[in-house]
Amino acid sequence: MTIAYRVAQVFGGLQMISYADTVRNIALGAFDDIGLAAPMIRMEAVANGLSCIGWAAILVLSALGRGKTAGRLAYGVAGMMWFDVLTTWRLDMPLPPYFLWWGSAVVVLQLLAGYTLERAGAKEQAA
Question: CA 73, 71, 21 angle in degrees (round to 5)?
Fold first, then answer.
């Protein structure tokens, strides 16, 4: 496995931790006083939870040498993040400044990690 493959795995691990932390914060009430409707807050928790599970699956698949499948799954999880960025940046939520820009940059990094895993997996299957 290449250095790029390992970097993609580390990035995936960081994504998993980040999404898990967001779900934890929502469960602890971090979003309770921001003015969003309760169903919207639950939706954020579910979406972040699914993304956490997705990155966990990507890590397991990549560790098992299934980089091609892991990469393709990363594309789907990145799509979820992109949808989240596009639908939440306009809401009255505790988002950092320039969320649209850096959220989009994170999506690009997620896609790059997916591409790295998929290409490495395709090379291993061809060998």
Answer: 60
